[in-house]
Amino acid sequence: MMEVTMRVAALPGVVPVEQPLDFAAVYARWFHDVSHWARALGGPEADCEDLAQEVFLIVRRKLSDFDGRNLAGWLYRITARTVRDHRRRACCAGWCGPTRWCGWPTPRPTTSCAS
């Protein structure tokens, strides 16, 4: 398994040092930001922590493939795709009541069961 590192500058003017990325440290540092992004991207407030958990399941699985550059951008893109998929599932399944997330009305049956 490839070890992922991230450039970290300790002090201004000091050459950046390669430092391994640890999942627990990434989780602790970024969980709040990821849940905030999930809400800002349109995730339901009640589901934001669940969405953040889904994001970090993906992060855990793909951390070894991450190149170490722009961690915030990488997490944001995973969050955006996770929220998009969640909203799409909710819209298509009609879980959100008569007006769905995407604003489309709930479809009405074209035939009656009584006929």
Report on this model:
This protein is mostly helical. The chain has a single domain (5-93), classed as Rna Polymerase Sigma Factor, Chain: A (Orthogonal Bundle). It has helices at residues 23-40, 48-62, 71-93, and strands spanning 5-8, 17-20. The protein is elongated. The N and C termini lie far apart (62 Å). Mean pLDDT is 77; it is low at 108-115.
Helix content: 40-55%
Beta-sheet strand percentage?
A: 5-15%
Q: Structural class from helices and strands?
A: mainly alpha
Tell me the count of domains.
1
Radius of gyration: 20 Å
Number of strands: 2
CATH architecture group name = Orthogonal Bundle
Spatial strand order of the main sheet: 1-2
From the structure above, extract its key features.
115 residues, mainly alpha, Rna Polymerase Sigma Factor, Chain: A, two-stranded antiparallel ribbon, 3 helices, 49% helix, elongated, disordered C terminus
SSE map:
Layout: E1 5-8, E2 17-20, H1 23-40, H2 48-62, H3 71-93
Antiparallel strand pairs: 1-2
Helix pairs in contact: 1-2, 1-3, 2-3
